[in-house]
Design goal:
Blueprint: H1 10-21, H2 25-35, E1 40-45, E2 60-66, H3 70-82, E3 87-90, E4 104-110, H4 119-129, E5 130-141, H5 147-158, H6 161-164, H7 174-180, E6 183-192, E7 204-212
Parallel strand pairs: 1-2, 1-4, 2-3, 4-5
Antiparallel strand pairs: 5-7, 6-7
Helix pairs in contact: 1-3
């Protein structure tokens, strides 16, 4: 049984690791864009295999990577050992972060706010552990602005998608949730996943930044 700071998705975790090992340049560029100019002490939640480590700039003092899935956390620790940035990997879930208020200059949420049980709770914790004026950097897939795809997203979310993909929900309005949690969005760049020749429920994405009020 998983502990309070763990979430177990053994099959999906291995799929995530496989995907990370063959990530296209398009996704790598979006990670670089998300992290450009980041500095100070950073918390990255849902860090996965640690694929972001190589994209952190030299201005970062430390990355504390929080990953609840044991297999992914093991891969993340290996990546941290080889990273040029100073990185520490810890077990934890985003809605119960084991850190004091205002502990970090920057928080990073990358392709994980789709899968948290409660976005408001998760974003409230990120708001809490950031210092006043600190930044949230994010790269997430979001609810489609196209009515037809939005209907498909709602359908797959009600049926098989969350069970098949580690709790992922495709139809969340994540930018609205970020703003509702007490952040001022300072950058929001819509991007579209074009790896496949046809749209899928996670094709609509955003890269952005928000400041803690």
């Amino acid at each position: 049984m998983a502990g309070a700071c763990e979430v177990r998705h053994p099959l999906f975790a291995r799929f995530v690791a496989w995907e990370a090992s063959r990530e296209p340049e398009q996704a790598r560029e979006r990670r670089r864009s998300m992290l450009a100019g980041v500095s100070g002490r950073v918390i990255e939640v849902g860090a996965g295999t640690g694929v972001n480590f190589e994209h952190y700039p030299e201005s970062v003092d430390e990355v504390v990577a929080v990953e609840p899935e044991p297999y992914l956390r093991e891969q993340c620790a290996r990546a941290a050992a080889a990273a040029t940035v100073r990185a520490t990997v810890v077990a934890g879930v985003v809605d119960r972060l084991p850190f004091a208020d205002g502990s970090f200059d920057v928080a990073v949420a990358c392709l994980m706010l789709c899968s948290v049980p409660d976005q408001a709770s998760a974003l409230g914790e990120l708001h809490r552990v950031l210092r006043p004026g600190g930044e949230l950097r994010f790269y997430e897939h979001v609810r489609s602005s196209q009515a037809g795809m939005a209907r498909i997203q709602r359908f797959v979310d009600r049926t098989f998608w969350p069970r098949a993909f580690g709790g992922c929900h495709t139809s969340r309005d994540t930018p609205a949730a970020i703003a509702a949690a007490g952040f001022e969005i300072t950058r929001l760049e819509p991007v579209r996943w074009s790896k496949l020749p046809f749209p899928i429920p996670v094709s609509d994405q955003v890269v952005g930044a928000a400041r803690r009020r």
